[in-house]
Amino acid sequence: YVYTARFCPGPDGVRGESEEERALSACAHVVTGCYDHNLRLWDVRAESVGEDKSAQILKVVQGHSSHINSIVIDPAKTKVYSGDGVGQVRVWQLARHSFDCLREVNEPEVKGDAINCLRIDRTGKQLVMLARDNCIRLFDTDRWTIIQRFSGLRCTQQHIRCDLSPDGKYLMSGSEDGGVYVWNIDSGEQDMSVGTSRLPQMKGLCTDVAWNPAERIIAACAFSRKHPILIHRYEREKDNMAGEDMADDEIRDVLSGKFNGLAEAFKKLDVDDSGTVSKDEFYEGMKALELALTEMQILKIFKAAAGPSNEISVEDFLQRFAPAAEMHDLKTKTAVEKARQRRNGGRTASSAPKTPKSAALMSMFNEDSPGKTPARLARVPSGGASKLHFEN
Fold it and tell me: Among 16, 42, 159, 355, fewest CB within 10 Å belongs to which?
């Protein structure tokens, strides 16, 4: 079985004077990675294809101890990187088609885990490795150290693949949960500028993804009859939130008349009474208001309010964005609630109030109290003084 294949140039590298000639020479041969642990070099030039339309095998390269799942060729077309089913990456010399092994990479973190996918950036200095341990790693190809890890996807059993954006700033991957995940290469954080609801979502495994090299288009495919391939195009002119940030005045307009409900939603979510809410809590609170906001709009509001931190102070948020009249109403409501709690001994309004002692005493004289005999006062002489006692 052939698991992976890549075009590569001839033994003399990329040749030609025109762009068309250079493009043709860059794909004159094919390298495949197979189930039998071997790489194979094929000559696919038209003049080399036989009468039966089959290409000729020029070389069989041994070295891996497991099936080869992924191959990638560096931008200079001088090296081939191959990853196998036990976590090993090998670097091969492509010049002159020698296929000398330049390096064996045995990263301890992925030892024994199948490598699903390898991708290299346009500089040839960073290699992306997706292994079956729910993690994608970014390697420096000069020192062979891990410089970034990307988590969030699910990949432990299936052949899930990833891809780098044409500008090298983002990483996208499929997942066994059917989702498509995008990360910022520099920060390693999952990118939320485009809401997850706007990314492809499969009813099964999302096995592979790809960026269009020229247009703002992505493709995703699934191991499912219902969703074989999905194509998504980003249309900036139709996105009313395409700007990088939201101004404070814009946020006030969007949330006008909703701050009472928003304060109540945050109060319910702030279960530890810390006075802050996380990004996820903020998102849930905004959704509870049933506002006509996209997921991206909500996340942009959070970004504007949270700044560099990953949480929002509820009080600061309300003071910053709530109109003066609504803020006054909120303060009044909060003050009344605190006064009620102090009067009830720190209990909230929902707590069961204690019966005052005077009320308990007077209930003894209530003839309508069920199961009680009305009390009767009697005067008892006691050394010239009178005392009152109760008789039932």
Answer: 355
